[in-house]
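Appendix B, record 7
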Amino acid sequence: MDFLTLFFTAIILSLLCYEVHLRMLPGYKAAKQFPGPKRLPIFGNIFDLLFNDQLSTFTLPRQWAAKFGESFVLLIRGGMIVNAIRASETEALLSSAKLIDKSVIYLYLHPFLGVGLLNSTGSKWFQRRKILTAAFHFNILPKFLETFHEECEKLVERLDEDVDCGQATVLQDVAARFTLNTICEAAMGVKLDSHTMADEYRAKIKVLVEYLVQRVMNPWLYENFVYKMLGLEARMNKVLKPIHAFTNSIIKQRRKLFHATVKNLEDFSEENIYFNTNQRYALLDTLLASEARNQIDEDGVREEVNTFMFRGHDTTASAVTFIFFVVAEHPDVQQKLYDEIEASRPHSQYTVKDYNELRYMDRVIKECLRLYPPVPFIGRTVSEDSWFADRFVPKGSMANVHIWDLHRDPEQFPDPERFDPNRFLPESVEKRNPYAYVPFSAGPRNCIGQRFAMLELKSILTAVLREFRVLPVTKRDEIVFVADMVLRARDPIKVKFERRNI
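Structure tokens (predicted):
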């Protein structure tokens, strides 16, 4: 037997031994409980995930969800990836107080966000959650309304320009500017439009998101060594530098103001910040008070500000985009919304109570978030042996919740592609599994800012519909979705605004 024969025989035997090893792993055995795409010996489903662009990365899970009609699995190196698209598996994952570790893809946000509330775990996450819960207490929400209303006025003026020119409006552009301005003032207490670095910050954030998506979509870039050797880490750091410089300058400015105005930390009690009407509140104030009490350090303050700036604007911008798209598509719904707004119009500015009484608007927004969830995907690491309904999922597995497909479960939402706000009438909600609808996630790691987001969405919808009719331009079947950090369309989504007073 010559050398080449021995060499190839050794390789074949090694591969066979590796395949036997994979088959003995808990994930390989547990995967048999779920349907899934065909797995190759040794490689499993790795080739299903390689060499996909943003379009195919979005569409492939939709194809598998349609094919299998239930939660399905992928196998990579003998490890199981559960893809939950039904409430039974989603509930088991999201309701757990122990399965709170984010999946590995969140590691690539660390250079930008650090390890804050979004991607931390364990005692650090619990401590940060405790600190920040007070910042989004419902008693604080009225303090954000002034910011919402001021930015809504600017938005109406901006839409007037498009009306005067007779041109369609690209929703993504106006939505992103509105939500970034709003969260910047709410989170950091600074008007972004008045800051000299504002335009650069907006531009760099857009580029940064593109870089992050590129890395998440290309598994060969997961290794830090490869990412660095290709020069991509240096490219990322170049973009991050002005972003972090901007954030640091604002934190420094606000810290100086905070210590000049708060001489005694006892004055910064929950009671005072809830009911003191003389000072506009910012999320950063809570963090600075915690810093002064040695509950969080300077890096921690920056982590949380960056997190809320980023996640607080891109998710809401996605929601705003698709809400106005849907409203344009359904003139009957738009008329009902306008009638409700007019019937509830207060003598002065809207209060939180006024917005809460817009019940039909509440149902419309929720149905829009069902069809177009701003965060269509959640990834977790299964940190201990678990049961998802009646199926065993071993420690070390990954679990993904595909919210897009979960919200289209025909058992929970009959005729799921049809837009129907009545799905959120109280009697309809009571019949559903509460984990069938999770636009803000659910369980211990639910979105801490969901009340803030809903109030912001109602503010902008009310302000715009009072002044304009929204007419469709982009058709539903023209929208091509691509994988991104939030729900994103490949092409601009356009509507036309028409003044109501003519």
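Remarks on this record: The first strand starts at residue 72 and ends at 76. The two ends are 92 Å apart (CA to CA).
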